[in-house]
Amino acid sequence: MAKIRLFIDHPLVAGQAVPLDAGQSHYLSGVMRLRQGDAVAVFNGRDGEWQASLQEAGKRGGSLIVLAQTAPQQDPPDLWLIFAPIKKARTDFIVEKAAEMGAARILPVQTDHTNSDRIRQDRLQAHAIEAAEQCGGTFVPPVADLAPLSRLLDGWDPARRILWADESRAGPAQTLAGLPPGPWAILIGPEGGFSAGERARLSRLPFVTPVSLGPRILRADTAAVAALALWQAALGDWR
Amino acid sequence: MAKIRLFIDHPLVAGQAVPLDAGQSHYLSGVMRLRQGDAVAVFNGRDGEWQASLQEAGKRGGSLIVLAQTAPQQDPPDLWLIFAPIKKARTDFIVEKAAEMGAARILPVQTDHTNSDRIRQDRLQAHAIEAAEQCGGTFVPPVADLAPLSRLLDGWDPARRILWADESRAGPAQTLAGLPPGPWAILIGPEGGFSAGERARLSRLPFVTPVSLGPRILRADTAAVAALALWQAALGDWR
Asked: Which N-terminal stretch is annotated as signal sequence (chains A, B) (predicted)?
């Protein structure tokens, strides 16, 4: 049976109690049927993974006692994922997959062909937390609020390169083996692709590297996982 | 606006009519609002892509006139995907993504830790067709019926190597750059992982190469896309 892992947004110190909110308390006692003294693995995104034991679980909340650190903090490489939100289920999947694949930050952007003008940042952040709990990681990528792509590019630090999954560039994928190390971001377009204006601007920016993801047109969620996999294998923590 | 692409399981010959079933007919006239003479791109998985025009679309079906071939048939590399079905939505996603990523054949298998003992092969095949229509491909990977992994391995042709995404092998991913070309299959385990017996057998088989997909534990659908991306970039049609 897989061990239960819980993200707790609280400092983790051996011998100290940490609070459980009502949802976590219900999950541990009502869903997973844990009893007082049962083991739970906890992490807060900063201090690695800790062994804890259930102290109390009631309807309004509960508490755990933190015992000992079981794994050091492991942060992902400095890779961001920029994507244009699409249909709800697929947007959720992109955030979940970005967390599993080791993105350090997730930035939803509005593009010319993006229909949605708002996201539920709190819900997407909860998906990132759930993915971190499930994938054994100790890091939770922050999900930024929706911002226009043009504004993001206006204020972009050129020291961070952008790997642009350019869906118009069908054909053999570029190898990522020759890319320079350092901070990167992967940019995935919306289902309708980028507009001509966006394409022209992206093509001119010196810190943007366009890349093809093969001869078929990938959906945004597929493209996100594929690009993250190639980058992680070439430059990230899959090496 | 993206052009409308339709899979038609019928020989495609210039100047000849091909039938539309009731669903296709409703999609073209009712959903996409096409009228007689409007253009549709069609493919049958064997003869490339053809330009066609709508001849008739009624409630019980309709027909297209095939005009001229617009793209040659393009088959994916000889890569199969073997996976253990999981929850419905994620199983659908795996099939969709395998088709987008260029798998040539999709084989759902029952493993010791697979809960489902049946799949809707027809529904999964429909997902593969829809993905091919959407991704601009001319090939539709056949989805096999559910079979026990043990029986699949009993009759396995050792000339086809298996890339085994071994979730217990956390750590740096092996590079796939050194793998020999030729027919391959990628094997993705169920959410609970493979059993000890399955692991022992897979480890002994000379045609099985275990591979790690990084330090985090990926969900089966994420692992499928990531492994397909690495293989396509190293040995497939992303080179």
From this structure: none
